[in-house]
Amino acid sequence: MSTTKRIAGAALAAALGVTTLSACGDAKDKPAGASDAPKSKTVTLVSHDSFNVTDTVLKEFEQQSGYTVKVLKSGDAGAALNQEILTKGSPRGDVFFGVDNTLLSRALDNGIFTPYEAKGLAGVKPEYVLDKEHRVTPIDSGDICVNYDKQYFADKKLAPPQTLDDLVKPEYKNLLVTENAATSSPGLGFLLASVGKYGEEGWKDYWSKLKANGVEVVDGWEQAYNERFSGSAGGKKAKGDRPLVVSYASSPPVEVLYGEPQPAEAPTGVSTGTCFRQIEFAGLLKGAKNEEGGKALVDFLISKKFQEDMPLQMFVNPVTKDAVLPELFTKHGVVIEKPENVAPETIAKNREQWVKAWTSLVVK
Question: What pTM was estimated for this model as a whole?
Fold first, then answer.
């Protein structure tokens, strides 16, 4: 998946031989009196390919609301957003899910959303509410971080790197693989981590050092994580030889969940000082055919039921205050206390020129 969003959990699951659940349901199972909403109404969610939800959780929403949910998966996050921009005013669905803080300005500037203050928004952590006009509602967060192969570093008796500064040290030469910032969401997030850490004046110098230290750049997460990274199940099969990769803080729990046999401890770790916080949003599409159904669907996406289902379906973190993480996340995941951040308006102003400068410096 080239620029498919963060966690790329669905792709990782697929790489480990797991079939993800498809979003489906039937409004005819709605119990009598459960809702006054019209029967046999369809509400369409346009999303990137990594959207997933447990069938029973979605079915419960359908029964209670009277709406049948149709999920229209549209490739990676950037491609899906571009299609909605091209069909502005005559959208393919009612709600769009998957625009993140790296691309948020593009969506808002193109006016593809109708403002809607979701029911339950007060329960969302305020630091995730980036649009005060409520054109979009925060749904999940994930941290783009360097992951490391525990076995490699144990065998070499070398401490794994923990910070961005560590990655340019001689002992980590030729160990890191990252995704192209021009074609990949985690690649762009890692670039933004360097901007957040070193500022607009210092990030280029950092990447010059990283290039001199042998960083490898590939097109997307799938290739980086499941082919080049020595610590993942896919990478082991492909005989990957890079023990450091740009992925997500939630990747280690996924390696445990789908390990065969399931390991007692995650085989990969997270370099906690290398991270960029990615936030994903959903919005009611302007011109939606089923606006009321769209509003109900947005409300559902920040409900406790969906928020607690989400971590093991899309391998991202909930944004609501009352959602409880599953034990797999708390036992094998890490909490990133101080991720790097760049203000959405700063990203909007500089994203294209940063990517062009990065490409000239690192790839060409």
Answer: 0.81
